[in-house]
Amino acid sequence: MTADNKTAVAEFFLLGFTNLSVFKFALFALFLIVYVVSLGGNLLIITLVLLSKLFHYPMYFFLIHLSFCDILFTTNVLPNMMHVIIRDGSSLSIASCVTQYHIFGFSASTESFLLMIMSYDRYVAICNPLRYNAIMSSSLQVLLVMSSWLLSLTVTLVSLILVCQLQFCGPNVIDHFFCDIAPLLEISCSDISKVKLEIYVCSVPIVLFPFLFIMGSYISIFLSIIRISSTSGRQKAFSTCSSHLIVVCLYFGTLFAVYVVPMDKSNLNINKILSLLYTVVPPLFNPIVYSLRNKEIRTTIGSHSKRIQFEHK
């Protein structure tokens, strides 16, 4: 039977974690805590950087955009995911599902580019400190950030147009906790070859190139750190860079596994686990790794806390 002779579905039903429904209240509480901590941490970073004069440096300018991107990323996925968990599944209109996928792709792509920019910023700061202010000018900062957002929007609009052309004739059940591309393609009754091709082509500028660029930047950074004469200086630099690298590898590794490596029907559970890693972990740990371990930010938080305590006395 052809797609034209089938009845088009009006909505999708997200299954979520049906095999873990007995733990749904615990899962709901866990992801609620994760969302609140992630949202609070990123909002705190944005507020501190905007209000304090101590943070008028390129790194903090990029950090604001990374935090905003993390907020968009988690808010698009986690609240609806918690609703799916507590209800043992939930219906979602096709328009809402496609919108969620587009926002997810847009924020994930932007995060990849921002992480690449931040690695370049650290490379210039550590490997070429005397020319840092000249290289990382205000105009270059704005250009890099705006390019990240606009390039992500352009790439994901292409994907959105292709997904909107897909037909869904039933079944309408999505074995996932949000509207990702793999389960959408699984239930489509139209030709998905163009969408698959677009995913593989776009994975090069969105996933592969930023990851290779970041790895090259950090290799140069580590080589520069080795030449630092002070033992304590080397340890501090290694500690900071290794933390950044762990988060980056986790983020890009899971993205690569989900969107570049072909996934068949039997691997959808693995797909869900990997999707959890890049939708939950980076937005939660980015504020800690990139900022809250920063001495200047910790000092600012401490001074604000003391001032609030003093005003209440």
Question: Could you explain the architecture of this structure?
Answer:
The structure is a single chain. It contains ten helices and three strands. The longest helix is centred in the middle third of the chain and has 34 residues, at 94-127. 75% of the residues lie in helices and 3% in strands. Residues 1-5 have low confidence and may be disordered. Strands 2-1-3 form a three-stranded mixed sheet. With 313 residues, the protein is mostly helical. The chain has helices spanning 24-51, 58-86, 94-127, 132-135, 138-164, 181-187, 193-226, 231-259, 268-292, 295-312, and strands at residues 11-14, 90-93, 173-174. α5 runs antiparallel to α7 (193-226).
Sequence-ordered SSE layout with sheet pairings:
Elements: E1 11-14, H1 24-51, H2 58-86, E2 90-93, H3 94-127, H4 132-135, H5 138-164, E3 173-174, H6 181-187, H7 193-226, H8 231-259, H9 268-292, H10 295-312
Parallel strand pairs: 1-3
Antiparallel strand pairs: 1-2
Largest sheet at a glance?
A: 3 strands, mixed
The whole-number mean of residue pLDDT values reads 83
Low-confidence stretches: 1-5
The total of helices stands at 10
Radius of gyration: 22 Å
